[in-house]
User: Which sequence fits this backbone?
């Protein structure tokens, strides 16, 4: 079994300081939270960025500033910008951070209901366009999966040459598909041979899904984007505190933690 890769999704585009005052907005705060997660054991920083007032943005220059601050604090960490952006953004607006040539970036493989009347749209042409752009720039996509059909889309578009193998998937459990052991096992069993995967449980499911990911041989994502609590009713003080809890679980379950360079080897990345 490979060593465990921990991804920290440090702020997301939706959660705010009203949910937890430690959610980062400013460049300095984002750097601080990335460093706390990295020092606790995270190899990957899954990155959304905000303006200082908390407004989410895909602005390339804001990403540049945040990525430079993270690299200053954590020189070897893998930075994985999100191309999800926010509901209503255009394709090219969402793709701005890949112009900075990160090692990885996210690729959402389907449309989903995102709460209330919000629909996060990813048409077939959007998926193909994002995939092709990442191939052109030598960026490995993390395929974001919110239900089983998105795995099938990824397999389809890989056959058509829009996504390169071996593929890496992130299962976001508890938004559209239920966060259960049965559903996670179904997703894992649906992957093409040679794939790697991470699981992210949303809200109260975060650490249950983390434990399953550890014992099933996958990898784990935690962080304020998905959950702001360290335990029931207790707000986490930092992303690092969430990562530390996963590290403790992994230690108890006999799984070693991957360094950033070990994560690169597992995922087939080359440090830029």
Assistant:
């Amino acid at each position: 079994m490979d060593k465990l890769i921990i991804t920290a999704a440090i702020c997301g585009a939706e959660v705010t300081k009203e949910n937890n005052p430690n959610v980062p907005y400013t460049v300095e705060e984002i750097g601080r939270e990335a460093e706390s997660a990295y020092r606790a054991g995270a190899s990957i920083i899954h990155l959304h960025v905000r303006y200082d007032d908390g407004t989410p943005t895909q602005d390339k220059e804001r990403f540049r500033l945040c990525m430079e601050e993270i690299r200053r604090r954590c020189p070897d960490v893998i930075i994985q910008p999100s191309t999800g952006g926010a509901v209503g953004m255009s394709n090219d607006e969402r793709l701005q951070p890949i112009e900075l040539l990160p090692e990885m970036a996210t690729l959402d493989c389907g449309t989903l209901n995102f709460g209330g009347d919000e629909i996060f749209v990813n048409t077939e042409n959007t998926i193909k366009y994002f995939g092709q752009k990442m191939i052109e720039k030598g960026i490995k996509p993390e395929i974001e999966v919110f239900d089983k059909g998105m795995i099938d889309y990824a397999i389809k578009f890989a056959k058509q040459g829009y996504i390169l193998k071996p593929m890496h998937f992130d299962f976001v459990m508890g938004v559209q598909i239920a966060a259960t052991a049965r559903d996670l096992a179904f997703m894992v069993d649906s992957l093409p041979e040679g794939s790697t995967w991470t699981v992210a449980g949303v809200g109260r499911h975060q650490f249950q899904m983390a434990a399953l990911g550890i014992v099933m041989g996958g990898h784990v994502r935690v962080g304020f984007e998905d959950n702001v609590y360290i335990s029931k009713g207790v707000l986490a003080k930092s992303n690092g505190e969430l990562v530390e809890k996963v590290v403790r679980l992994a230690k108890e379950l006999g799984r070693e933690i991957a360094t950033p360079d070990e994560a690169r080897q597992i995922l087939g990345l080359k440090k830029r």
User: Anything to note?
Assistant: The CA atoms of residues 61 and 129 lie 22 Å apart. Residues 27-40 form the longest helix (14 residues).
